[in-house]
Amino acid sequence: MSQGQTGARLLVETLVANGVDRAFCVPGESYLAVLDAMVDAPGIDLVICRQEGGAAIMADADGKMTGKPGICFVTRGPGATNASAGVHIAFQDSTPMILFIGQVARHQVEREAFQEIDYRRMFGEMAKWVAQIEDPARVPEYVSHAFHTAMSGRPGPVVLALPEDMLTEEVMEQVAIPGPAHVVQAHPGPDAMADLRAMMETAERPLMILGGGSWTEQASQDIRAFAEANNLPTSVSFRRQDLLPNDHPLYAGDVGIGINPKLAERVRTSDLILAVGPRLGEMTTGGYDLFDIPVPKQRLVHIHPGAEELGRVYRPALAMNSGMPGFAAAAKAMAPVTGRWDNWAGTAHDEYLAWTEPPETPGDVQMGEVIAWLRDELPADAMICNGAGNYTAWVHRFYRYRGYATQLAPTSGSMGYGVPAAVAAKLRHPERDVVCFAGDGCFLMTGQEMATAKQYGANVIFIVVNNGMYGTIRMHQEREYPSRVSGTQLVNPDFAALAKAYGATGEVVTETAQFADAFARAKAADSPALIELRTDPEAITPSATLSGLRAQAEAREKGNP
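Request: output the structure for the sequence above.
Response:
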């Protein structure tokens, strides 16, 4: 029980009661009282970041790793708008997260006071719940609600605004601090599981697609056991490649951007799709092309923790509103169905392995060979982080994730994610190798968080893929407006020198053969390390060149096939 406490102290006490051990922040005068209360909460490691977008991304990454809400504090106005990038990522990625925003004093509301924003309106479509705490006595109630909301059903972000005068107001009556929040997830009923088994008994070409949020390591193990018991070929959705070891004989690859054409054909010709957890959005459906809308040709079983997602675009033959731990445990316990599709299952992994053999691309640095070297040399628990851009096509295609929660990448396609996510990963798992991939444009969006890495001894290895342009946009530009380059060229700094300015090591790799030794030196360094890979702009994807795309587009314009 707390008596004579301020709103700020009640807030910090409630965080401690919910097991919070780390929070990310950029300080601001609007929540000074919370920063002061943190002094008396040694159990919370307060990580000071360099920009609110980086802080919010770190909170998202921490939520992904722990399954509990990542915690972020920012100040009002510019602080909140910067942090909105991380909130959007957490929403689309189904990550539990709570963003606390310092707010103007209550008596100043609706006057457009300094840096005032109505956060209910600002974050209304970007978060599961947005509220402003007006009464300090209700702080524990609001925060408890925030934890339950962030973790339950389809996980996601919650935003709480904290008026600065509320944080300093004392509460004289006794206020109970609730115990830790519990995850509330639906479970599949026996009838639904019986229907699933009956559908599997008549299937000849089934395919399971794993994805989405609410997973745990145990759920990952249980769904693997279900796949093994039923000899079920299993794929994963975009940037959820760590849900099943990629070297498993039933692993079929990822259903996302740059999908293996043979896997795409397997999805189209399957007679039973078990979509376990993913949203069936643009990335998982190949731009809504792999399945007919609204009724797919394939019999669709869709399992998702949020009921609002079931039937949203596609009408399933069987829908289950369930969290992943509940469904995976029920699936593991189900009597297996075997024998009908052994030949169908046997070729899926072989097709994946063939797809992940690196082709030769233009330039002296072969990204495919670099990634293949890393997949052979890094331990199974190494964590790979990245943002967005064409450089990620090599990472996702040629690296093989072998452990649960070893991939931190935004399904929202947000640039700048990799650097702060990698810092959060190294802080959470200092004993593990953490490698961040970032394009030259991607890195410079949040590269200042290298200072955070140095400050806290987070010895991440940052690999910057430098081709001197915003590559993804340039690729589309050549497809749609060949030879008319505008808005995509970049003049970059010396990334190795920049790393050294942050107190990290830095070096440049201009040939594939140089990479192994450079990586060994980076791993041995007692500091963060950066390796700049200077790649040929022609190597725009593992299977296409800029000049080839331009020639195809020009041929189309001339009416040639």
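The two ends are 76 Å apart (CA to CA).
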